[in-house]
Fold this protein.
Amino acid sequence: MDRTARHASFFRVWSPAMAYVLGYWWVDGYMRHRKDTGAHLIEIASIDRSHLEAIARSMGEPPGLRKISGSANCYEIEFCSKEMYNDLLALGGMPNKLNVIGFPTIPVELLVHFVRGFVDGDGTLAWNGDRPVLQIYSGSKQLLEDMADAIAEQTGIPAPHVIANRALWYLKWSTIRAKCLAAWLYVEHQGLALERKAAIAAKFIAWQPRKRPNAGTITEAMKLRFAAYLPSEE
């Protein structure tokens, strides 16, 4: 398959790279049909130019890739492809998606790559004092609710409540749950990842709580799934 064909069919065949880019696009991408020219455009934006270049390479680095520098230190890659446009529609993508897009149907084994792409696109790994916190944002409450449930089902980390924040909604995991989620996303499953967030995830893994977590913070499912990352019960 040549590079042009690989590019055009990228969102048609599930793979770790496809799931990651889909997650990244789901939160930080756009699609539009220009009626004046008939062009079908797929766009992905980020402040991390080198990461957009890595995404382009994973998609086959098609001819005609354009990198656009914005005034706010934001970069964008744009693909012109009716096939990609239609494949995204089939997966549940849509123009003007911010507040209405839902959670797509994803093969179970690829959920982690989709979520990592979503977190890299519009999530934060940060510290609240000495405690790790992982948050993800969306204008669609239903999307976050369904994503939280899917993550909980696969990891055993309880789904947090969706919280309102002005025009957006967000999910928040903190302390040992944020550590386990970071391990699932960035350590246990390798693939495309934004380097600066992966570096913070590594620090989350090294974090140890100063006192024993409250009862119920660590579920029985987490004890089975993330034993290597949990504090000793001694």
Observations:
- Strands lie at 29-33, 40-46, 66-69, 75-80, 123-128, 131-138, 163-165, 168-174.
- Residues 141-155 form the longest helix (15 residues).
- The two ends are 56 Å apart (CA to CA).
